[in-house]
Design goal:
Chain lengths: 169, 415, 105
């Protein structure tokens, strides 16, 4: 992609995403970390838009910011550890080393490989094609994903039911 | 089909003056696009602020009329300067930040609630070429941006460092996520019929087939209005800011212009929900061919204000719902109905394509089937859940001869 | 800096993955670990979408479908993991992963 708009948009959103991710790791307060996580999700949605993945961008905002971030906030409220710290344990330096090695290996692989690229200008409208694929070619994973969600919802309810609650309806 | 002549004075399309101005300047493509978008956004913001000012007065007078009293009538001629007085009051009040709060998140709360309600207006088509960003996933964009309200409300309630604010925030979020599901499914019905999520396509479909989607999907329209009212915390579902109950809920600690942001966000969100309902269900800026003579944006604004009037009407008339009534309504009543409606719409579309019926036969048939289905489902499912059979009328208590005991006549005590 | 290619997006994805991995390994709070895992999911999504956009393929939108499934599984996993966090707090009175070491005496 060579037009200035896309380039500026990419650098803006990439800086927002990576900067917010560093902020998530570096925040002392867990609520601030979740706030930076929301900014990171929004930056990712912007990156998806620059990749002309419009449906996935909107799904990212809807699911990650609208639901998963709220879920994390609820869990933080329900686990009132004193101070709600976000500090690291004793594995700090091995973790930094391992993360650094992983990042270096992946970046080297990304830069060194000869990718087989195509000259497609960008998708026009992805929602129709994704919908067709989900109901036609990938119908079985679609159904399994819905069963997975059902199992997750039931599991979460069963796990946090109060002790000795009477049988509901 | 549309008689837009495209001259700069042709105000049937408000983009004409801006377009001719920018063409005279002759900027390169990207700068032209940026300035065009900024001017469009500024225009939308200006209209929104003027509408909020007007509707503060309109709402208070109309609700007062419904409640058999006069509204504000002192500040200007017939109280017309009341919004100005309100705005000045909020601007001049001291915006206190309590000491033990999280300063950044506290300051960010009103901003985070204001932004989604304004961004929603980017995809709404005000006229034939007057949608600021005509996305391919416009309908889903509306729901996603409305979903940003949820963590914003939580942050606002959390940062107040106030147990009642946090409790109010958690109740609001429970309401919001329940009715987000109902909202998505309610907007899914029309999208299945139209076959596209682009807002201009939805309006174009309604124009081409000459039927507002209200007639084909009455249940979805009602569900969307109700879910929208809950999403914007508007009466009769304003349990979050019930002044008599939770001491103003999640915006307890906000004063001055911070509260002003919450206050106008309620009106802006009401406009957003009404604009979506008008575009998707009521035909948007088209009115059976009248949009060739009357500007499309005037038709759109009239429909928008009439729909918002329905919200004002419900505020003045209906009592407030309890939080458990709201949640039971969403999960036990609305969600099964919406799922059944999606199933029905899918079946109807399939039958229509299989039988290759002409539109004059298929559309009335679909409308009749949907209306009958709506009636049957609402009444039948309500009966099944135990409402509406009259068994919940209060029983009159009678004293017996034994002291200290009260026996109810008839059946057992109503719950 | 005049064009944006596949490598740029892959580098962003790698950085996000590394930061998520660091959080998942090093944070003391259980919810911090979960936030790191969510960042890793997002990095994977970004990589899939960028390959779907740039790489030569017969079914270019298969990447998007995969990302939808990843988002679904991430949501389900977040729900169950956070329920476990709440239950853990209820049982052990702490969510500090360094102190939940009941299996070693």
């Amino acid at each position: 992609m060579e037009d200035t708009g896309s380039v500026i948009a990419f650098w803006l959103f990439a800086a927002m995403t990576v900067g917010a991710a560093v902020g998530v790791a570096a925040s002392r307060n867990l609520i601030h970390a979740v706030g930076m996580l929301i900014i990171s999700f929004a930056g990712l949605a912007g990156l998806y838009v620059t990749l002309s993945a419009d449906f996935i961008a909107v799904a990212q905002v809807l699911i990650y910011i609208g639901a998963i971030a709220v879920l994390i906030l609820f869990a933080i409220v329900l686990t009132p550890e004193a101070g709600r710290h976000n500090q690291e344990g004793f594995m700090r330096f091995p973790a930094v080393a391992l993360a650094g090695i992983t990042a270096a290996a992946m970046i080297y692989a990304a830069l060194d490989t000869e990718w087989v690229l195509s000259d497609r200008p960008g998708f026009e409208g992805t929602a129709t094609v994704i919908g067709d694929a989900l109901l036609d070619k990938y119908a079985l994973p679609f159904e399994i994903a819905s069963v997975l969600l059902l199992v997750a919802v039931l599991g979460a309810i069963v796990l946090v039911r109060p002790e000795g609650a009477e049988e509901g309806e | 089909m549309f008689l837009l002549k495209g001259e700069w004075y042709d105000f049937r399309d408000l983009t004409n003056p801006i377009r001719s101005l920018l063409d005279d300047l002759g900027l390169p493509g990207d700068a032209d696009y940026v300035i065009w978008s900024l001017l469009g956004g500024a225009g939308i913001l200006l209209w929104l602020i003027l509408s909020v000012l007007a509707f503060i007065w309109i709402e208070r007078r109309v609700v007062a009329l419904m409640q058999n009293r006069k509204g504000p009538n002192r500040v200007g001629p017939a109280g017309l300067l009341q919004p100005v007085a309100d705005a000045l009051k909020l601007l001049l009040k001291e915006a206190i930040t309590p000491r033990a709060t999280d300063k950044y998140v506290f300051w960010l709360g009103p901003v985070l609630i204001f932004i989604p309600t304004v961004v929603v207006f980017a995809v709404i088509p005000f006229g034939e070429r007057m949608a600021l960003a005509d996305l391919n996933v416009g309908v889903l964009f509306l729901i996603a941006i409305a979903g940003i309200n949820t963590p914003a409300v939580f942050m606002a309630g959390w940062a107040s460092n106030n147990k009642y604010a946090l409790l109010g925030a958690m109740r609001v979020i429970a309401m919001l996520i329940s009715y987000e599901v109902v909202q998505v499914l309610a907007l899914l019905g029309p999208v299945i019929l139209v076959g596209s999520m682009r807002m201009q396509d939805v309006v174009g479909w309604q124009d081409e087939f000459n039927t507002p989607l209200l007639l084909l999907q009455p249940l979805c329209f009602a569900a969307y209005l109700i879910a929208g009212a809950v999403e914007i915390n508007r009466s009769p579902m304003d349990i979050s800011e019930a002044e008599s109950e939770l001491a103003a809920g999640y915006h307890t600690e906000y004063g001055g212009i911070k509260f002003g942001f919450f206050y106008q966000a309620e009106y802006l969100a009401g406009f957003a929900v009404a604009a979506t309902a008008v575009t998707v269900f009521l035909g948007g800026w088209t009115l059976w061919g009248l949009e060739d003579y009357i500007p499309g944006w005037i038709i759109f604004l009239s429909k928008l204000y009439i729909t918002f009037f329905v919200y004002i009407w419900s505020r003045g008339t209906l009592p407030r719902l309890r939080i458990d009534q709201l949640m039971a309504f969403a999960w036990k009543f609305m969600l099964p109905l919406m799922v059944l409606n999606v199933l029905a719409v899918g079946a109807e579309i399939m039958v229509w394509h299989e039988t290759e019926a002409s539109r004059n036969v298929a559309l009335p048939a679909i409308g009749a089937v949907n209306a009958a289905l709506a009636l049957v489902l609402v009444v039948g499912w309500g009966r099944f859940l135990g409402h509406g059979t009259g068994s919940q009328k209060g029983h009159r208590a009678t004293l017996t001869r034994e002291v200290g005991k009260i026996y109810y006549t008839g059946a057992e005590a109503s719950s | 800096m005049d064009s944006v290619d596949l490598e740029h997006y892959l580098i962003v994805g790698s950085l996000l993955f590394a930061i998520g991995m660091y959080m998942a390994l090093a944070k003391r709070n259980f919810i911090g670990v979960l936030i790191g895992i969510e960042l890793m999911f997002n990095a994977v999504n970004l990589t899939f979408i960028s390959f779907s956009r740039f790489a030569e393929s017969d079914a270019p939108l298969a990447g998007h479908v995969f990302v939808i499934f990843v988002i679904t599984v991430a949501a389900a996993e977040a729900a169950v993991a956070l329920a476990l966090a709440v239950l853990l707090y209820r049982v052990r009175e702490t969510v500090d992963v360094d102190r939940i070491d009941l299996l070693k005496w």
